[in-house]
Amino acid sequence: MSIEIKVPTLPESIADATVAQWHKKPGDFVKRDENLLDLETDKVMLEVPAPQDGILEHIAKPQGSKVTAEEILGILTLKKAGVEKISAESSSSLEAEKQVATNKNQPEETLSPAVRRLVAEQAVDIEQIKGTGKSGRVTKEDILAHAQMPSQATPKTQMSPILAESPSERPEQRVPMTRLRARIAERLVEAQHSAAMLTTFNEINMQPVMELRNRHKDTFEKTHGVKLGFMSFFVKAAIAALKKWPAVNASIDGTDIIYHGYQDIGIAISTTRGLVVPILRDADTLSMADIEKCIVEYADKARAGKLTLEEMTGGTFTITNGGTFGSMLSTPIINAPQAAILGMHNIVKRPVVDNDQIVIRPVMYVALSYDHRLIDGRESVSFLLMIKQILEDPSRLLLNL
Question: Is 372 a catalytic residue?
């Protein structure tokens, strides 16, 4: 008995998805609820689990295919009663043993994934290639030799088979944008075109925060089970400043201004797929421990591609930290329809004047990019100044100053 593997119902506002990666190949045994493949949308990555135990019989939508809800992705043959389960590894070895030691070429479905990829990339006819592997199997070297390419294992170039070596040894590789990267590009260009964006800067003496953090970080971690970072200080400072200057927490909808009576703070997180911005909902109700725990959870989920659409929807203000990569200064782009974004940067020891004395202090440059259609210079500068004042005297947070 066979059943169809279908695209699940997609989140609201998402019309289609792209097959990002199959984790199984035809002939593999799969267990119920085991992830078969990943579907990439322009916002989140979705997993498609196996509905039952069985053998993946056929893949209808290979990697890179664009699909919509309820489309058939593949066919799963259910395990017959009394038949012992076999793993993907044993299944593959059984297939190899079935190959007769002749000069006949094996069917394409028995080729390894790497060989199948090369066959597609080089556009070769598998029937014209004589296999030199065990039992007459076609190997990567056979494909490369047939296509008159240098082997991937050649010590001279160590070049990926995707990149053909040119006479001048100037390789190029053309790959399509991921859905997330394409969406990021679209939103950034849209923000540049639709907002009157300006950036104001300031510097923060981080010594008071660093001393407070160093004094309590061990006890904090033992008590709350999470490390005390700098981000929770910035989130708390931003919340206080947003309450003082509500226009920075607002957004524009047509000719209307929407003032939000809550602070949903987006935290920009870099992943291999691109930048994602999960939201700390009602951040003003969270303790510093809650904030740190949420950030760690979001970072783990972001890098595993498991953030949900709900976790990345909304937000009234965003904080991004380019300092983790060594950035000294930048002009972050607004995360529309928000009106402003705070950029943190690296901490560097710099000479500063303190009580008419030149001293060395750990300094961070901060930037606030804002939509000048909604936020005036007075509000933007005052907002950033308030964050500076709070972080240079963290006791203000306790006193609500």
Answer: yes
Closest CA to 43 of 179, 188, 244, 150: 179
For residues 292 and 391, membership in a common domain is answered with yes
DSSP letter for 168, please: T
Lowest-confidence pick of 65-74, 157-166, 271-280? 157-166
**Nearest-angstrom CA–CA distance, 105 and 222:** 63
* Tens of pLDDT, residues 80-99: 544 444 444 444 444 444 44
Q: Which of 300, 356, 376, 393 is catalytic?
A: 376
CB 190 within 8 A of CB 51: no
Q: Put the strands of the sheet holding 2-6 in their side by side order.
A: 2-6, 72-78, 54-59, 29-30
**How many whole angstroms separate alpha carbon 128 and alpha carbon 52?**
39
Q: Cβ–Cβ contacts within 10 Å for residue 368, how many?
A: 26
Per the confidence metrics, is the pTM higher than 0.90? no
Distance CA(171)–CA(160), nearest Å, equals: 10
User: What number of H helices and E strands is found in the chain?
Assistant: 9, 19
Let me know whether 193 and 120 are in one domain.
no
Place of tokens 């003082």: 244
Q: Would you call 354 a catalytic residue per the annotation?
A: no
Q: Which member of 218, 282, 354, 372 is catalytic?
A: 372
Q: 134 and 201: one domain?
A: no
Residue 387 in tokens: 């964050």
What gap in Å lies between CA 47 and CA 225, rounded to an integer?
30
Query: How far is it, in rounded angstroms, from Cα 180 to Cα 120?
Result: 26
